[in-house]
Amino acid sequence: MVRYDGGVPSSRPGRSRPEPTRHGGRVAAIILAAGDSTRMGRPKALLADPDGRPFVARLVRALAGAGCHPVVVVTGRDHDAIAAALGDDRLPVDPVVVNNPAPARGQLSSLWVGLDAADAAVVDAVLVTLVDVPLVRESTVRRVVEAWSRSRAPIVRPAIGDRHGHPVLFDRAVFGELRAAPPAEGAKAVIRADAGRIVDVPVDDEGCLVDVDTPEEYEAIRRGRVR
Prior knowledge:
It contains seven helices and ten strands. The protein has helices spanning 55-65, 79-88, 107-118, 138-151, 175-180, 187-193, 215-222, and strands spanning 2-5, 8-9, 27-33, 71-75, 96-99, 125-130, 155-160, 163-164, 168-171, 198-202. Strands 1, 2, 3, 4, 5, 6, 7, 8, 9 and 10 form a ten-stranded mixed beta sheet that branches. Helix 1 crosses helix 4 (138-151). The relative contact order is 0.18.
């Protein structure tokens, strides 16, 4: 596992370009896991999914299985525990674990940290997802990447009807917009600015919509209501 500690890489990957995905184009993935999980009361990244796997490890597997590389995990105060959980899971890939030293700046600051780490490999697009949306299927991720590969739209996301889910794919063409977005608005400012060019990918995967923020929501998925 490549780890970045305190925003300073202890083992930094080179800028060699990763191989294109099976769909064409080089797509990285960023998992945002730097929040304090105040409503949950414990780190959401470490919660066990219905199969007993930590949320963060489940997401790494889904993203890597869809051909994303590298897979970057952005952590906050729970950096060591999250890195240890990933190390214990015997993942099929080595994720890049990078710490946001000041996550109180807002979620966009974590996206910037993740984008810096992902683009060290010079990628063509990034998929961004939240660790509290852990149940998205690998097949859904793959469909989003395939839709981007065909269209090269600036933003691609899964959708069920008029509900939009995660992960959201951002083409390299909007990396500059993400870096310049107002911290208070985050990536939503970029999504609004490019609303007319977004591709919504119809899926039947409720997992791309399920946001687990509270103990009650976690208990619901533990009972297998959504898989």
